[in-house]
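Predict structure. Input: YbhB/YbcL family Raf kinase inhibitor-like protein, 182 residues.
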Amino acid sequence: MVRKERSVVRRVTGVTGALALLLSGCGVIGSGSGATPADLTVTSPAFRDGARLPKQFTCHGEKLSPPLRWSGVPAGAKALALVVDEVGTTSGATVRWVIYDIDSRKIEITENAVPREARQARTYDGKEGYQPPCERENNYRFTVYALRERLNLPDGTDVATALSEIAAQTVARGRITAAHLE
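Output follows.
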């Protein structure tokens, strides 16, 4: 039993560390180039930045992933990634969805869809795909990353590896945040 608990602690610590690197504003992302990542603009036709996430995109509703749009992808970007995480008042960030190797020419993800060429990492609970939020008072961040190279990781890659690779390849990023749930 102790061995299993240590394994879970190591896995959570690794995910937390990778997420901290990815989400930090300290210039860690894209640090391989020595430059601070450029800004992308991320919007959604379903909710405004800072507004509540509509019920259909939560575990209390239809459990759909929301539609997202972005602009400002640098010309040299080879791929995009999306990381959805939950930030609670008493806990760290929980990764709810990771998609990578999205075609850099795409400008949106439609409701409840994954682009055909994209791949998904496992999330905090070991599952692939969108894990709809449930905690009404937490914040939910939808962050799009422009990557200098495709990651070429297989579907089902563990979240720590995917986040680390995204962090190493990021040249631009943007985010929309849902403040709480409807």
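The mean pLDDT is 86.
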